[in-house]
Amino acid sequence: MNDYIDQLLTWASKDEKPVLERAKKNGGLSASDYEKAWSDYKSCMVSRGYKPFELIKWPNGVYEMPSHMVGTQKQEEKYAEDYHECYGKKIMAIDTLYTAQVGNPSLYADQTEGVADCLKRSGAVSMDFSISTFKSEIGAGKYSQFDIQDPKVRACFAANDWHMGLQSDPYAQLW
């Protein structure tokens, strides 16, 4: 994980670097540093004129920005810029580290391997669950080995940067 932190430090913003260096010193990112980063993200977005919103927090502690009700083209362009400023330049490296730490501690390069391993570790699937089964179920959009609505399952997807966006998910009303 220290090598991974070193990689993140090469592109992290000046605001993120002290947090990542502390994580390296402590052997991982603390939940409190992760929570603060997401709190700062919310404050940044609200300070740019968006209505207050609730983040999705999965059982593994991973946060995810909910989808939002679509605005005008101008609103969406502003949102993209603001998201880049508030997330991309302020917490993305912190989020990347924490999600890997809880959802993909083996640092699988293949996202499907990370999710499948997380599903096993969380108890959402049996230990003999295979990556080929996972890939075929995802490809078919039919899930017999796990419940796609299960928060533990969704947590593994979120922790591996795989955003599902199901119809039952909450939406943020930003404008």
Query: N- to C-terminal separation?
Result: 39 Å
DSSP strand (E) fraction?
under 5%
Order of helices and strands: HHHEEEHHHHHE
Largest sheet: 2 strands, antiparallel
Low-confidence stretches: none
Describe this structure in words.
The protein has 175 residues and is mostly helical. It has one domain (1-159). Helix content is 55%, strand content 5%. It is built from 8 helices and 4 strands, in the order αααβββαααααβ. Strands 1-2 form a two-stranded antiparallel sheet. A two-stranded parallel sheet has the order 3-4. A hairpin with a 5-residue loop joins strand 1 and strand 2 (63-64). The termini are far apart. 29% of the residues are buried. The model has no long low-confidence stretch (mean pLDDT 96).
Key terms:
two-stranded parallel sheet; 175 residues; 4 strands; mainly alpha; two-stranded antiparallel ribbon; single chain
Task: Produce the secondary structure layout.
Layout: H1 2-11, H2 17-26, H3 31-47, E1 56-57, E2 63-64, E3 67-68, H4 73-88, H5 92-103, H6 111-122, H7 131-140, H8 151-159, E4 171-172
Parallel strand pairs: 3-4
Antiparallel strand pairs: 1-2
Quick overview of this protein structure:
With 175 residues, the protein is mainly α. The chain contains 8 helices and 4 strands, in the order H-H-H-E-E-E-H-H-H-H-H-E.
